[in-house]
Amino acid sequence: MRSFSADEVHAALDYPSLVEALRAAFRHSHEAMPVRQSYEVGFNGAPAHLLTMPAWERGKALGVKLVTVFPQNAVRGLGAVSSLYVMFDGETGVPRALIDGEALTNRRTAAASALASTYLSRPDSTTLLMIGTGHLAHHLPEAHAAVRPIERVLVWGRNGERAAALVAKLNEKGLAAKAVADLETALGQADIVSCATTSTEALVKGRHLRPGTHVDLTGAFTPKMRESDDEAVLRASAYVDTRAGALAEAGDILQPIAAGLLKPEAIRADLHELTTGALPGRRDDTEITLFKSVGAAIEDLAAASLLVSGAGPVAETSRAAAPRARG
Question: Which of 13, 26, 63, 261 can pair with 275 through a Cys bridge, CB separation 3.0 to 4.6 Å?
Answer without folding.
Answer: 26
